[in-house]
Amino acid sequence: MRLLLIEDDEKIASFIIKGMKEAGFRIEHAADGETGLAMASSGDFDGAIIDLMLPKLDGLSIIETIRDRRIALPVIILSAKRSIDDRVKGLQLGGDDYLTKPFAFSELLARVQSLLRRVNGTVEATSLTLDDLSIDLLARTVNRGGKKIDLQPKEFSLLEYLMRNAGRVVSKTMIMERVWDYSFDPQTNVVEARVCRLRDKIDKGFDKQLIHTVRGLGYVIKK
Amino acid sequence: MSSRNSKQRTLASRLTIWNAAIYIVFFGSAFLLFYLSIGNILHNLLDEDMVEDITDFRMLLEEDGFSGVTTEIEREIYADGPENSFFRVMDEDGNTVFSSDLSAWDEAVVDTVLLEQFAEDSEPVLVTIAAPDRDYDARVVYGWIGPDMIMQTGESMEEIQELLTLLSTIFAFTFAVVVVFASITGWLLARRALRGVEEVSRVAVDVANGTLDRRMLAKTEGAEIERLASTFNTMLDRIDTLMSGMREMTDNVAHDMRSPLARIRANSEMVLSDTTTIDEFRASAADTIEECDRLMHMINTTLDVAEAEAGAARLSMESIDLSRVAEDACELFGPIAEDKGISLSSSIEPGCHVRGNLQMLQRMLANLLDNALKYSERNSRVTVGVNARDNTVLVSVRDEGTGISQQDLKKIFDRYFRCDESRSKSGCGLGLSLVRAVTMAHGGSIDVVSAAGTGSEFRITLPA
Description:
The complex is a heterodimer. By secondary structure, chain A is an alpha/beta fold. Chain A has eight helices and eleven strands. Helix content of chain A is 40%, strand content 21%. In chain A, strand 6 (127-130) and strand 7 form a beta hairpin. Chain A is elongated, with a radius of gyration of 19 Å. Chain B has a five-stranded antiparallel beta sheet, covered by helices on one side. Chain B has helices at residues 2-7, 11-80, 112-116, 158-208, 223-271, 278-309, 322-340, 358-374, 406-409, 431-441; strands at 85-90, 96-99, 125-129, 138-146, 149-156, 318-321, 343-348, 353-356, 381-389, 392-399, 445-451, 455-463. The model of chain B is unreliable at 1-7 (pLDDT under 50). Helices cover 57% and strands 17% of the residues of chain B. Chain B is an alpha+beta fold. Chain B folds into three domains: 2-161, YNR034W-A-like (Profilin-like), CATH 3.40.1840.10; 217-309, Signal transduction histidine kinase, dimerisation/phosphotransfer (DHp) domain (Helix Hairpins, Orthogonal Bundle), CATH 1.10.287; 313-463, Histidine kinase-like ATPase, C-terminal domain (Heat Shock Protein 90, 2-Layer Sandwich), CATH 3.30.565. Classes of the chains: A alpha/beta, B alpha+beta.
C-alpha cells in the first residue's frame, strides 16, 4: 500500500512517516500544497493524509481539485481546526475522514487501515479469532478455550472492535467513537471501567492475558 | 473617529436643515399658488371690464350716435390720463376714423393680420402688447361697436403689475423671517431633544476611557431617552459583570492549565537525571501524554462551550430521540455507578423527540450524569428522568450527594468555576457551562434545586 502525506510541519511529518513505515506502508511526502496536488493527481497512491493549512495551496482546495478531476483517492484530513463546521465542510468537499491535531498515531493508523479496508471492499469476516478466543459476529457469541462467555451488548461491541484491530493499540477516543457513537471522551473513566469488566470475563481464569492496557495510549488485544 | 465626525454633519444641524427646508417648500408653494391666483383674478377682471366697455360703446352708438361715442372717449381719457389708456375707432380696413391722444402710445398700432380674420359681429378679441420703452405691458381689445366700425382700446396693466410686485416684496420679506425663525426653532428643538443622546455619548466616552463604573443619571428627557439611558446602564452593568467574570476566569484557567504543565515539566526534569531506566522513560512519556490529553480536553471543551454559546445557527440540528440518548448515557455510566456503589435508576418515557444536535445533547447528559456520580456517596441513588410535557421535553438528573451551597449556586454555570470541594476531584470547571450553553443553543432552560447535604436536581426543559 502506498500512501501520500501532504504536511508542512517537519516534525509531524517525520513522526507519521516513521510510524507508517513501521506499520508496513510505503509513504511519500509533499511539504506544500502544489507539490501535493501534483503527486495526488499522479494516481500512484492508494490513500492520502492531507493537512488543511498548507503553503501555496490549502488542503481543502487540493481535495476539491482532485474530486473535480474525478480521482478516487481516499483522503484523511488532518487539521488543527476542530469545530463541527470545519469537520462537516471537509467531509462535504470530499474528505473521507477527519482527524484533529494533536492526535495519537495509533488513531491515525487505525483510521487509515479502516478507510483502506472500506475502499477496497474487503469481505467482512463473520467470525474473528485470536489465539483460543473466537467471536461469532452473526450469532454474537464468544468462546474462549471451548468455554462460552456471556457478554452484554456493549461489551460485545467493544470486544469486536478490539478484535478487528488485534495487535494495534486503540485509544479511548476511538473506542468512545466506534462503540458508543460519542465524539468526545467524558473524563471519567467510563472506558476503563468497561474494559475492566470485559477483561474480567475474557481473561479471568486463563493463564494468558489477551487484553492489555498501554499507558497513555489506550488498549490492545494481542497474544 | 473625530475626522469622520468633522466630515459628517451633526444630527442637530441635519434636523435644523430639514426643518427649514420643509418650511421653505410649504411656504413657497403656498405663496406661488396665491400669487398666480391673484394675478389670474386681476387679469380676468380687467378683461371683463374692457369687453364691457366695448358693449357700452356699442349701445352708446345706437342711442346717441357717433358724437356720443367721441364725447364718452374724451371723458374717459380725461379721467384716466392719456398715458394710461387709449381709444381708436376705425373702419373694417383699419383706417382710423377717430382716436384719443396717441402720443404716449407708439406701440398701439393696428394689428392688420388680426383685422383680416375679424369677421363682423364676432366677439371682442383681447391681446397683450409689450412696450419696450414702457415699464408695463398693456392689454388691448378689438371689438365691433357698429356696422363697419371697430373700436380698439388699450389699457396699461401698471396697476396689476405694481400690485403683484408689492405682493412679491412682502412675500420675500416674510419668507426671510420664516426661514430664520424655522432654523432657530429647529435648532433649539433638535438640541433639546438630543441633549439626552449627548449625555449618553459623554458617558460612553468615559467608559471607553476606562471608567467602567460611570452610569447615566435618570432624568426626565422623555421616555425614549430614558429608555436609551436605562438600556445603556443595563449594558454597562453586564459589561462590568463580564469583565470581573473574565478576570476571575483567567485566574482559574491559569491555575488549571499550570497544573498539568507543572507536572509535565517536573516529570521531564526527573527523567533527565542520569539514573533513569528505560521503563522510567516509558512511564514518563505515558504521564506526559496523559497530561497533554488533559490540557487538550480543557481547550477543546472551552471551544465547544464557545461554539454552543454562538447559538443554534452554527449547529446542525435534526430530530433526536432524547429518550434513547438518555438511555445510552445511563448505559455508558452504569459500570461507574456500580463501582462506586451508587444505584443508578431511570424513569425514561420512550420516544421523546427534540430538534437538536446529537453530539451536543450527548455531552449535556453525560456531563450531568458525570457530575451526579462524582458528588454522590456510596449507597446513594442517582435518578435520570425524561418526560414529555405539553410541547416540551423535561430532562432531570437527581442525586443525593453533597449538594451545592447557596452562595455557589449562582456561579456553578460560570466557566472554570469550581467550588472548593470540586478542586480535589477531576474536571476542569467547564461541565456545567457546557450543559447550560447546549441548553440555550437548543432554546431550552435549565434550573437547579439544591441544598448542601441533601443533593441536587438539575432540570432541563427543551422545546419538543
